[in-house]
Amino acid sequence: MHWFVGLFPEGPIQTGVSMVVAAAAIVGAFAGLFAVTTWIERKGLGRLQNRMGPNRVGPWGWLQPMADGIKALTKEDIIPAQADKLVHTLAPIVAVAPVIMAYAVLPVGRNMVALDMEAGLVFFFAMGGIKEIAVFMAGWGSRNKYALLGSMRGIAQMISYEIPLVVSALVVAMAVGSLSLVDIVNAQAGYYGGILAKWHVFTPWGLGGFLLFLVAATAESNRTPFDLPEGESEIIAGHMLEYTGFKYALFFLGEYMGLFAVSGLAITLYLGGWRAPFSFLAWIPSWLWFFGKLFCFIALFVWLRGTLPRMRADQLMEFAWKFMVPMVVVNIVVLAMWHYSAAWRFPTAGLWRWVLCGGVLLAAYLGLSKLWRPWEPPSRRVYRYAE
Amino acid sequence: MIPRVLGVGVIKGMIETARNFLGSYYDPQRLPTIEYPDERQPIPENSRCFPMLIFDGESPEEGLRCVACKICEQECPPQCIYIEVERNKQGRSLRRPRVFDLDISVCMGCQICVEVCPFDSIKMDSAFEVTAEDRFGELLRHKKDLAKPNAYFHEINPTEAALADARIEAGKAKAAAKAAPPARMAA
Question: What is the CATH number of the domain that holds B68?
Fold first, then answer.
């Protein structure tokens, strides 16, 4: 990219061209990934549900996203007569644009980050927060009580899961001592015993934080089992009720882009970003590792979608406030324990550190899950027959 | 024993769906999809759709078993059969239908015509892919459309075809025995 930018004269033109090239690359790569993901999702869900996915358009149906795109583009654009036209039209744009901006701080490969901000993590979450306003705008601007209900539930869900999401990310920032995503990836350099990479996920607080972040990310992106705002059997399309054709496709795009963005962040924070897991695999290009891990995340989300039923609104909120929030706080305490026990010098200290920190996390997990939903097996039934 | 901890159910579910996913590539139990119309499911013997007329031998005109007795026309509940007997110049019936029309848009597939036919000539076909572009013209089937060879009947429903053939043979044997002179008593 530097070669290409160097072709242009020095000064503002060069900066302008480099900005355009970076933006075009990001949008192109992730929009292309979006198309591939819709295909993976439909075929994957099909096979998970004992059926074939679409296989008519192109071999193995891989041109299906193109067919979907053409369908979305050629649909009639309907805006309800009494809807607030400005708000209604702006909502899909507000859903998509900030999410694309969040990609600017993700380090996709070695020396491949569009913007190395010192507060990259904060910028990322700021952009993610604007997505919730888009949901509200969609529900309000449609002038439809069901859309409004759907968007209210959606916002409640997204706001409740912001806290576990942000605090899980905060743990990593505390461990590394910096909010810059590039620094966080660099802090995961080195290998345990020369082979296994020093990713954050291989520490007790990292493992807990990773799992909590994953659950919160699923909830933030409105993916099953947290896809209440778009549950077709409940509220048809929730806040996206009054949207047709391309605007609906834009909401879809925004949702999937959000999914890639939080997955990318999870990879950056916990899975070492573009780093290889084993030292003997470090020759594979860094961006290939990043996208490989991203594919694994997409497969995981599709797998979860094919397996789990939807959670009810009250179950969802209970889970967030009564389980996730205390767990992330315990995670921070465990990070502190891990950090200060790094000074232990007796033999097998590493094992005992793991036992202590892991034990605290496990105890908190079991204790909190009992509090949240005590499960009793049903008592033996007594049958009374008519005489 | 795996304790009932939060999250165990999710893991168990994910293992099951993973088995679905991987099994769908090699185990037909895990992918029961039949891609119609490229593939078809085998139809059971007894399945029935619309009636057909059976003819023995090669010629649909000569070998048609139907004698135009009109019992099926009378018994048909929605009255979808229309028969005209072929008569010679003197007005005697030639034991053949001149016209045998069956309206398959009216036929309800109840099989009563098959049950009452004394000559095993009208039977149920199992071909269900009958589409027509003209609702009134093409869905009225004539004698030439309804006539199907006995070999075809054996193909789609061997059990019933064998029984029908046995009955006809028994009938012929009985008629031959009556027609032949009775055995002479030993003098």
Answer: 3.30.70.3270
Q: Is residue B42 part of a domain?
A: no
Chain B contact for A89 (CB, 8 A cutoff): no
* Residue B137: Cβ within 10 Å count: 8
* Substitution target from A42, A48, A302 for chain B, most B beta carbons within 10 A: A48
Across the interface, of A50, A303, A372, the residue whose CB is closest to B30 is: A50
The mean per-residue pLDDT over the stretch A209-215 comes to 94
Nearest CA in chain A to B15: A307
Number of domains within chain B: 1
- Burial call A119-146: b when 16+ CB within 10 Å, e when fewer: ebbbbbbebbeebbebbbbbbbbbbbeb
pLDDT level of residue A237 (50, 70, 90 thresholds): low
Residues from chain B that touch A212, judged by Cβ atoms under 8 A, are: none
ipTM of the complex: 0.81
Element (H, E) at B153: helix B150-156
Residues A20 and A103 in one domain: no
Pick from A47, A306, A366: CB nearest B5: A366
Contact: B24, A369; criterion CB under 8 Å: no
Asked if B20 lies within 8 A of A303 by C-beta distance, the reply is no
Considering the domain architecture, whether residues A33 and A109 belong to the same structural domain is answered as: no
Q: Identify from B10, B14, B26 which residue to disrupt to test chain A contact, counting A C-beta atoms within 10 A and taking the largest count.
A: B14
Domain range holding B92? 51-170
Cα–Cα distance measured from residue A200 to residue A295, given in angstroms and rounded to the nearest whole number: 20
Which tokens in the block code for residue A23? 């933006």
- A141, A94, A158: which is closest to A242 by C-alpha? A141
Q: Residues of A numbered 23-62 whose beta carbons fall under 8 angstroms of chain B's beta carbons: which are they? A: 44, 47-52
Mean pLDDT of chain A: 86
Question: What distances in angstroms separate CA A277 from CA A14, A274, A298, one per listed residue?
Answer: 37, 9, 19
Same domain, A68 and A88: no
CB-nearest partner of B17 from A48, A323, A372: A48
**Cis omega before residue B37 (within 30°)?**
yes
Q: Model-level pTM?
A: 0.84
Structure tokens at A142: 């449609």
Give the pLDDT score at A382. Answer: 86
Range of the domain at A233: 77-366
pLDDT greater than 60 at residue A105 = yes
Q: Is A369 on the interface with B (CB under 8 A)?
A: yes
Nearest to B13 among A307, A365, A375 (CB): A307
Q: At A72, which helix (H) or strand (E)? A: helix A64-73
Task: Scan for tokens 């995503």, then name that residue.
Answer: A181
Cβ separation A51–B33 shorter than 8 A: yes
Would B35 be classed as within a structural domain? Answer: no
C-beta separation of A230 from A147 below 8 A: no
Closest among A107, A103, A108, A99 to A127, alpha carbons compared: A99
Q: Could you tell me if residue A115 is inside a domain?
A: yes
